[in-house]
User: Fold this.
Amino acid sequence: MTYIAKLHLIPEWVPLLLNEWLKESMPLDLTVKAGKRHGARVLVVRIEASTAEDLDAKLRAFNTMIEAKGYGPLKD
Assistant:
């Protein structure tokens, strides 16, 4: 059984370094594509795992990584 989670990221909030990593150095269990949600542009990140526990660990790791790289609105 394959477990799948989808995350929607706001493109303008993705730091350049993270954006390059998502485009060029993608692990096999992650896919990223452009999409729309409620009419707004988003990056759709899809994470796959073989168990629910593995999916939870990958989601936590991905969230920690994007927060560490500065994902979020620009601060003036």
